[in-house]
Amino acid sequence: MDIRRNLPLLMTICFLSQMGGFMILPLFPLFIEEFGLSGWMMGVIFALFYVGKVIGGIPAAAIYKKLGGKKALILMLLLLAVCMGGFALSTAAVLFGLLRLLQGLASTGLTVVVRSIIGDGGNVDNRGLYNGYISSSEGGGMVLGPVISGWLALHWPLSLPFLLVTVCCLMAVVAAMGMKTTAQARANHGSGDTLSDHLIEDPSATVTQEPLDKSTHSPLSTDEVVVDSTISDSHPFAAPTAPPLSSSPSDAKHTQEAYTRLTRRQQLLGYGTVHFLEMSAYAVFLTYFALYAAHIMHWDPFATSLAFTVSGISTLAAAPFVGYLSDRMGDRLLLCMLGMFLIGIEVVVFLSTSSYLWVYVGMLIGGVGGACYMDSFFAHIGDHIPDESRSSVIGKIVSAAEIGSIVSPLVAALMMEVGSLYSVFVFNLVLIAAAIVVQAAMRSRYKTKRV
After folding, report:
1. How far apart are CA 87 and CA 125, in angstroms?
2. Is the pTM of this model over 0.85?
3. CA distance 326 to 237
4. Are 394 and 119 in contact (CB under 8 A)?
5. C-alpha pair distances (Å), 98 with each of 30, 52, 107, 377
6. Positions in the chain whose pLDDT score sits under 70
7. N or C: which end of the chain has fewer CB within 10 A?
């Protein structure tokens, strides 16, 4: 079955879950404060969310391989619903902390499952576009969530948005239940075949267990893996975009071979490092931009919230287009690097001026940059990691990257103590530059050859 039939439901799921997350994001500190908890306890409760995100990736990948995409999605969404409903009904700090930990697990799990579905169900011609649609739907949730919760908080108790998010999660569960599976996928799952997701149908798809050198018909070393690839000859920087040993239906119909001088371990380390740096920079931005806007640019809260909204709208609008561009260019790592560069421009703009217009323009540019990075990064992993280990690799990368979400704000806090808020965003730019350098080094190790 074509994954396009399930893509609208995947987009609905991501929109509802992201909207729910951003609905409670500005209200959660106020909600916890209502119960008279100490600042230290609030900090612990907030931190447990990121601990959950760190440890959630690998278990989510295992669940995905064991149960398939549909059941894994339903499980993660039900866990989110339990967490949100629990927040609204509980008053004990210990229970808040446990629910916050589970929320982090489910949040990372949802990311791993959705991106794995796209990686397994797509191919080199459409993974970027499909990831773009997912990023766009998440951007829509980022825009709408805070608006709804802010309005509700003016007229209703703070527990109501949490109950509404619970309803959103349950609606997403219904959407996941509507996803179509096939008898072939179920048969594969029942026989212990974990290479294909329940959302893919191709009885003729096969997996080559060992790549062969065409000239000698002997196995290649792990340092040089030959895989099929489809790349436009018109682009001068075309890099490989096909997964080695992939069983995806259309990945086997190509006219070029792609060589990588990276071993599997080096690929995992490279991808993990890049995403760690990107998530570190993102965490610093989310944590300290509001402070910078208030104390350095002297903005009011509405103007600051509008900046986040502008960025979300930019991602919403740009993601499908940059995803399509990623598919057509073939050079996904180059587009990842461009995305990080655009995010750097966003930071440079608000460090240079407090003009509302220019900062909002910078946010628009940064939103496009975020879409470029996310669409191409996960599509590149889908292209180059074989089916049997793709979800596991994504899980490890997402979990490792979330460590950056914990560590980088702490480093930035120390820098703010000894320096200033300005130095925090200089650190942010250093993280972005480092991510670009690592991606450039990885890109140089991918080569293509006409056959």
Report:
1. 42
2. no
3. 12
4. yes
5. 19, 10, 14, 32
6. 1-2, 25-26, 29, 39-40, 43, 181-262, 446-451
7. C
